[in-house]
Amino acid sequence: MSQQTSADAPCGPPAAPIPRRGRSGACAAAESRREGEGEGEDEGAEVGGGRVGLGRRFAAHLTATGLANLGDGIVSTGAPLIALTLTRSPVQIGLLTAAAWLPWLLLGLVAGVLVDRHDRRDTRAAALGARAVLLGAGTAVAVSGHLTMTVLVLLVLAYGVTEVFADLAASSIVPDLVPATRLPEANGRTMAVEQVLNTFVGAPIAGGLLALGTGWVLGLPAGMAVAAVVVTLVGVRGRYRHAPDPARSTGWAQVSDGVRFLVRHPVLRPIVLAGAVMNMATTAYFALFVLWAVGPGSALGLTSATYPLLTAVLAVGAVGGSMVAGQIARRFGEVATMLTSWALCGALLVVPVLLPQVAITAVGILALGAASTVGNVLSMSLRQRLVPAAMLGRVGGASRTLSFGLMPLGALLGGVAADQWGLAPVLLAAAGIALAATAYPATQVRQRTVTALEPAAGSAVL
Questions:
Q1: What's the pTM?
Q2: Rounded to the nearest 5°, which phi and psi values hold at 350?
Q3: Comparing C-alpha atoms, which of 289, 280, 311, 290 is closest to residue 411?
Q4: Nearest to 242 by CA among 24, 28, 461, 385
């Protein structure tokens, strides 16, 4: 099971509709992004007091997201279960998790620049196509009987590279597909689809496929990636490239722009730093959780076939959280809701350790899924509002380099520490660190600060 308790960077739904930041010159709008159709026909809008859909392009984007995440859920659940057939070493299991997140540390900044320089739809399609080829090769190795821990780690590492480009492009394109006033709804739907297909559907399928053979765990996701490419290219029509600043056209200058924007931002900086620490702690936690939950000597005593059912509970909570995030934020304030959700995540991580019973753990995991998704929906929408459209890739790359870049370190440290002191002390320590990390943004970020940094309503230009 893998679960991030915070998003890559701050974001959150507005208490009232907020227009998107105006763009001109270097921050020009995406080229020809409405080719061939009227804007009002494709975008969601309010009609007669009600809301229509978010548009055909977003529907296609959401479908491709679902296909990609179904395959992702099979791989992310199946890879640790495959590893358990090869080793029971906490260090090696931690290394496998570290390999999945290391590409964010190495490539996050560069990928952000490339996403801003190139068409975001085409970038996503290319990354998913590379993923299909990679998984196809992994299937051939597995079927031939030559899969080892070294090969599995390298496969997961390369898979992580495709994830960097596909995820950055996918999140950066959303503001071009829907009006700014509908971003919380669009992000909520996206996260609901991700959780349902990644965890609720993909995880149990992984357990069944593993019984058929390792090749199935890699082969079926390869097919899902191909389908996602087709849907993206056919359904998300138009061009989605934002022109770079001609005065700062070098790659390094554009990287520094994204880092500088993030470091100087009074809202994004504390939330991203806290998210980085939380992600490091929770990665250590969930890298070891499979050892705590699965196997004859484990605390929960689950099998490879029943373990994915526990992860499915996480998705149920996540879907519920994605549906109510906006309403809760409007009632209690987006910043307060986001930070409270993250604090709950840290507190809920102790439940499976102190009360290692399957039923109680399932309830805790259910609440964890809801709390983490509420925080993620709010933080994602906030970033999309506060960052200029032409910089979303670079700022997203900078923030994920930090927040995801510490995750390999967490996985490795967790594995080494568990080897020395055992699973329970390390799991509890990770939960404590995740909870403590929320204190920093709680003292720095206020709702009035977010409101003051919102773009003026009159300057919005689509």
A1: 0.66
A2: -80, -15
A3: 280
A4: 28
C-alpha span between 430 and 446 (Å, rounded): 27
How many domains are there within the chain?
Answer: 1
Contact 430, 284 (CB under 8 A): yes
**pLDDT band at residue 152, thresholds of 50, 70 and 90?**
very high
Tokens 């994602």 belong to which residue?
A: 380
Segment 22-55, tens digit of pLDDT = 222 222 333 333 333 334 445 444 433 344 567 8
**Helix (H) or strand (E) run with residue 51 in it:** strand 50-51
pLDDT surpassing 80 at residue 345: yes
Question: In residues, how long is the chain?
Answer: 462
Query: Residue written as tokens 């959150």?
Result: 12
* Angle, alpha carbons 371-347-434 (nearest 5°): 90
Q: Domain for residue 295, yes or no? A: yes
Cβ atoms 181, 18 nearer than 8 A: yes
In-domain check, residue 397: yes
By CB neighbour count within 10 A (0-12 exposed, 13-18 middle, 19+ buried), where does 48 fall? exposed
Calpha distance 105→111 (Å, rounded): 11
**Which CATH number characterizes residue 101's domain?**
1.20.1250.20
- Type of residue at 260: R
Residue 378 to residues 104, 139, 173, 343, 451: CA-CA distances in angstroms?
Answer: 22, 38, 17, 14, 14
